[in-house]
Write a structure and sequence with these properties.
By secondary structure, this protein is α+β, with helices and mostly antiparallel strands. 59% of the residues lie in helices and 14% in strands. It has nine helices and six strands, in the order βββαββααβαααααα. Strands 1-2-4-3 form a four-stranded mixed beta sheet, with helices on one face. A two-stranded antiparallel sheet has the order 5-6.
Length: 296
């Protein structure tokens, strides 16, 4: 089967380092109703998000995708105070000192030791042109890796879906053969029930009346329409496996139609053999539904 099916699950990463600047991209993708892109960028790199998002939308259609960027700078060891944080803690310390009789003013080293007051000198610096190019190229590499992994998962998924569809087709053929035996089974069952009810009583039962009842029951138990629709759904499902692009939503809707026909077939089953076949059919369709949830 030459399928272009893609899964919504995958993972990829890329990293690079040059002149004391390093980065690490990690992309994770899981199932989602639509395409939900979530970027986790360090301070100073937020301006890159629109371009990165545009690149991702071109190759991804569905899934919840988290893209995390980690930056390393050798010159980040030099520390400097965060003006906003320092101003805030200083105001709090002065206010508290005024409230305490004889309180001494806050000491500088005590304020600088508070969490968040000191930070790396380059921690919030925006990237320069060379760093931007490195990070953007790294994202493209990670995105290509994620797409490749989703495609490989999709190929395995297509093989599994094909096997499940083959099982459903076999159960469909079995149900069609069992459906042909329903009228005779209904006649036998009805005759046995009437014999039990009328046993010991001299009440004649016209054969044509029995034939009418059997015909009525057989009409109610006729599953040819359900079998015809199941056959058409099988054709449509196999066609989706051969399509290019995101087919997950259409496949999910089609599985709902599979389930509807299988439920009706089970409700109309007049023999234990057909009921058992219908239950196996519903189980196979449920397996199909579970796997289709992963299709992009």
């Amino acid at each position: 089967m030459n399928s272009t099916l893609a899964s919504m699950t995958g993972f990829a990463q890329s990293e690079g380092e040059r002149d004391g600047f390093g980065f690490l991209w990690e992309l994770r993708s899981v199932n989602g109703r639509g395409l939900d892109l979530r970027f986790r960028l360090p301070p100073g790199f937020d301006a890159l998000e629109p371009g990165l998002r545009e690149a991702a939308v071109k190759v991804l259609r569905r899934g919840t995708v988290t893209a995390s960027l980690t930056i390393r700078r050798a010159r980040g060891a030099r520390l400097e105070p965060d003006p906003d944080a320092l101003e805030h803690v200083l105001a709090l310390a002065l206010a508290l000192a005024h409230r305490i009789p004889g309180g001494s003013p806050p000491r500088a080293e005590a304020l600088l030791a508070l969490p968040g007051v000191l930070r790396g000198a380059s921690e919030r610096e925006p990237p320069d042109e060379a760093e931007t190019q490195m990070v953007t190229a790294g994202f493209a590499t990670a995105l290509a890796g994620l797409t490749a992994m989703r495609g490989a998962e999709g190929a395995r998924l297509a093989s599994l879906l094909g096997a499940i569809l083959a099982e459903i087709a076999a159960l469909h053929a079995e149900a069609a053969a069992l459906a042909d035996t329903q009228p005779d089974a209904l006649r036998t069952r009805l005759a046995e029930q009437l014999d039990a009810l009328l046993r010991g009583r001299d009440i004649p039962l016209p054969a044509e009346r029995l034939a009418q009842e059997v015909a009525l029951l057989a009409t109610r138990a006729d599953i040819r329409e359900e079998l015809d629709r199941l056959a058409s759904h099988l054709v449509a499902a196999r066609a989706l496996l051969e399509e290019t692009g995101a087919v997950g939503r259409r496949f999910d809707f089609l599985v709902q139609e599979f389930q509807r026909e299988a439920n009706t077939l089970c409700s109309k089953a007049a023999t234990t053999a057909l009921s058992a076949c219908g239950l196996r059919l519903k189980a196979a369709i449920e397996q199909l539904r579970e796997q289709v949830q992963n299709v992009e």
